[in-house]
Amino acid sequence: MTAPHGFMCRMLLDTVDYLTVQIDKLTARITVRLAELSTTEDDQGPGQGTLIPITDTERLDEIPGVGPSTAQVILAEIGLDMTVFPTAGHLVSWAKLSPRTLQSGNMNTSGPTGKGNPWLRGALGEAAISAASTDTFLGARYRRIVKRRGHMKALVAVARSILVSVWHFMNDPSARYRDLGADFHTRNLDPHRKSRDLVRQLKALGHDVTLTPATA
């Protein structure tokens, strides 16, 4: 290692130190701004949404895949006033996480969701990737969809579910996250509907199916 190498290393270390200081300043500023926007539940009822308590970041952190930094990005991009989004569907549509229908004459085809807010989509995408590997409702949702729709569409579906939860949190300061469980769909499975689906699949393969009720 020669003197020029040492000089370049010193410059890189100085750059790291400078960026670290900048990050610390931004983090402190974000913390102060959230504290200024804090309010009590008595001051604001569900659906008012103009001010949020500091604990909203902690509540969003309860969602699988969402951390404190991700929660701050989400709040910064969607704003604090949920009256501009009457329903969760409006927020999801604004974020371009809803499937689009392309119509040409009498033909309807599905299209891409669109670009939307890149910072919000990036934060939700990271959260969806993290949630996909968990043993939670969101993780089970990813694993169910990825089998038939692919990786990217499954992640978009999980990101949409996360954003729907965020909308409910922002509208109701008392709301807390409650995971439905990884076995939600199997626990609430309709046996008659499942039987119809399996029969339809077998008939599509050219089989003649006759169901006989099993004896006790």
Describe the structure.
The protein is mainly alpha-helical. The protein has 9 helices and 2 strands; from the N terminus they run H-H-H-H-E-E-H-H-H-H-H. The protein has one domain. Strands 1-2 form a two-stranded antiparallel ribbon. A hairpin with a 2-residue loop joins strand 1 and strand 2. About 5% of the residues have low confidence.
> What is the overall silhouette?
elongated
Which stretches of 5+ consecutive residues score pLDDT under 50? 39-54
Strand content: under 5%
Distance between the termini: 81 Å
Helix content: 55-70%
* Number of structural units classed as domains: 1
Mean pLDDT: 82
Label this structure with key terms.
216 residues, mainly alpha, 9 helices, 2 strands, elongated
Question: What does the secondary structure layout of this molecule look like, with pairings?
Answer:
Layout: H1 3-36, H2 55-61, H3 68-78, H4 88-94, E1 100-104, E2 107-111, H5 118-132, H6 137-149, H7 151-171, H8 184-187, H9 191-204
Antiparallel strand pairs: 1-2
Gist?
The protein has 216 residues and is mainly alpha-helical.
